[in-house]
Amino acid sequence: MFVVSLTYVVELSEVEPHLAAHVEFLERHYARGHFVASGRKVPRTGGIILARVASREQLDAILAEDPFQQAGVAEYQITEFLATKVAPGFESIKDSLQ
């Protein structure tokens, strides 16, 4: 599991033109099962994506498709973790220790 923290590196007015394409990117990867949660930071300085993919390399390839990255309006900080404990109802995202 990966936590992707996006931080805008330009004014919000420069981010807005890419928002619709970014949402389409998110929807495509939700449909493929890659993303399990996402949303805006408060205050609106970027966003968070919770991604469940096989490897960091796969995640990097996915993020390279993000219109925000392609336009250079956001930077990404990525943290990998094992979700070994989850709340009821979130069992599908639980990782097993191997």
From TrEMBL:
<protein>
    <submittedName>
        <fullName>YciI family protein</fullName>
    </submittedName>
</protein>
<dbReference type="InterPro" id="IPR005545">
    <property type="entry name" value="YCII"/>
</dbReference>
<dbReference type="Pfam" id="PF03795">
    <property type="entry name" value="YCII"/>
</dbReference>
<comment type="similarity">
    <text>Belongs to the YciI family.</text>
</comment>
<dbReference type="InterPro" id="IPR011008">
    <property type="entry name" value="Dimeric_a/b-barrel"/>
</dbReference>
<feature type="domain" description="YCII-related">
    <location>
        <begin position="1"/>
        <end position="81"/>
    </location>
</feature>
